[in-house]
Amino acid sequence: MFGFITSPKAARVYDFLMRVGPTPFSALAVGTGLRAGDLAKALRHLRGAGRVAPVRLRGVEFWAVDGSGFDLGTQEALAWFAARAEEAGGRYERGNVSFPAGAYRVVAAGDHVRFGDFYCLLEDLRERPLKECLRTRKIS
User: How far apart are CA 5 and CA 70, in angstroms?
Assistant: First the structure.
């Protein structure tokens, strides 16, 4: 039985996790715009309601809506990309990202994410805003 979500901040975190999937704590903070303390409180609220649970894989803690398995490398890159996209004013949902300038199909493969004529590396996404992470794909 699930409990109610009565906190607007918890609802924001839950919405992000429903759209993106399992996400590391730091990426959740970036994607939702919440401070670490507020995010921790929202996650406690959601965990108490039976909505989310932490999942640890190879030293990385993800927060997930369900306990299903996932590919660590690919999901981490996708979660960070979604967080950075939302930080930049975009919205990630069901394999697509939309910005005011257009929408793109997103493909995560290993430690990088491709969309449109661009790609981003996981190591860059962890540290910098999306605009600084963009690299141009060479089309041959």
Answer: 25
Q: Which amino acid is at 127?
A: E
DSSP 8-class letter at 112: E
φ, ψ of residue 11 to 5 degrees: the values are: -65, -40
Cα 60 to Cα 34, 88, 113, distances in angstroms: 20, 24, 19
State residue 40 phi and psi, 5-degree precision. Answer: -60, -40
Tokens 């300038």 correspond to 101
**Which DSSP category does 66 fall into?**
S
CB burial readout 83-116, b (16+ within 10 A) else e: bbbbbeebebeeeebeeeeeebebebeeebbbbe
Q: Which residue has the tokens 């491709």?
A: 114
Q: How many of the other CB atoms lie within 10 Å of CB of 63? A: 23
Q: What is the pLDDT of residues 48-66, one digit of tens each?
A: 999 999 998 888 899 999 7
The reported pTM is: 0.91
